[in-house]
Amino acid sequence: MDREDEILTEEERAVLETVSEFRKKELEGVALEIDEKPDPGRISTLFRNAASIGLCSCLGKSDSGFPEGLSELTFGLREIAYASCGFAVLLLSHNLALLALEESRDEIDPEPFAAGEKRAVYATCVKNEDGVLRTGIVPGGWDAHAVVFHVQGEPLLYYAENPCSGLAIKKIDNPLGLRSSMPASIRLDLSGAGVKSCEISLKFSEILESVLMLGLASVAVGITMRAYDVSRAYAKERYQGGDYIIEHEQMRIYLGEMVTGILSSEALISYAKNALSKGFVSLSMCRAAKILASRFAMSAALNGVQIHGGYGYMRDYGMERLMRDAKYCQSYPKSEQEEIVEILENFPDKISVVRRAGSNKCRGGL
């Protein structure tokens, strides 16, 4: 595989080295345990330790209104997801919530959240006619100190500190994946005391969703990288049919598909991230990156099970955990099919603009 560090900036390389060291020392040894039994105390300790290297406060707004710290966030999430997808999504939810709170200009003190002493969570939601906000899965929802609700289809944010009379948090005790994210379903009655609201621009609403998509895409790449490394190591040790199975053509095809997934996903994430950093908001592009990366993660997990044979279904080998988490990357915060339809709905107008702009240079259109 091409050497990634040859094209990274010094700052990006430093982020990768720091987060990689944290992953190896703090997370690798407990990742399976916090997936099986997500103890809030242990995860809170990991969260504070992650805050000490800046993982709880990656994002900020530039003078132009666009997010800073996207490279730090995406590279960090990829490294963390390599060990624990759930913990990575927990960090993503927290960072998005802080970015939204910064936009609201509320009097909530950001320091305890940046230091990991408190947790904030980002909840995509729908608003019912009775004035109640409802969510599906919310990573980090267990015992969160503050919840930011992003209303789908409306340029509005609602937020509440816990406890709040209108806030009801219900733990999801047996989720399929993302277990170590401490997921919950959350309900907010807007008539309750302590509920605050903020009207935001449509552009900032799309920025929040775009960052969520890029974060999830990076998490999915971490899953694919893990599947590749674990499967390759096993294939080099497993002797069958007169040779190590890494020499079998089908095994090499499986591994090659994983590498293709990593490179393809990283290329689209990088393109979308750079566009967003420069002020071009394309939610469809970010959704496409998330869809592509999640599909490759699911394929990598399935191929990893094939390489491991019967052992692929055993928890000790880690592939079944990757399958669970990859499937949740595909379905969170909404189903892949819904995201595809939304891309389609936004595509014709945008492509027609491109065609008109380039009509003098390219007579055939696109």
Care to describe what's here?
The chain has helices spanning 10-27, 31-36, 40-51, 70-83, 85-104, 111-114, 202-237, 249-277, 283-308, 319-331, 336-357; strands spanning 60-61, 67-68, 120-127, 132-135, 146-151, 156-161, 167-171, 184-189, 196-199, 239-240, 243-244. It is α+β, with helices and mostly antiparallel strands and 366 residues long. The chain folds into two domains: 4-200, Butyryl-Coa Dehydrogenase, subunit A, domain 1, CATH 1.10.540.10; 203-348, Butyryl-CoA Dehydrogenase, subunit A, domain 3, CATH 1.20.140.10. The strands form three sheets. The chain has a seven-stranded mixed β-sheet. Strands 1-2 form a two-stranded antiparallel ribbon. Helix 5 (85-104) packs antiparallel against helix 7 (202-237), helix 7 (202-237) runs antiparallel to helix 8 and helix 7 runs antiparallel to helix 10. The longest helix has 36 residues, at 202-237. It is globular. The relative contact order is 0.11. Residues 360-366 have low confidence and may be disordered.
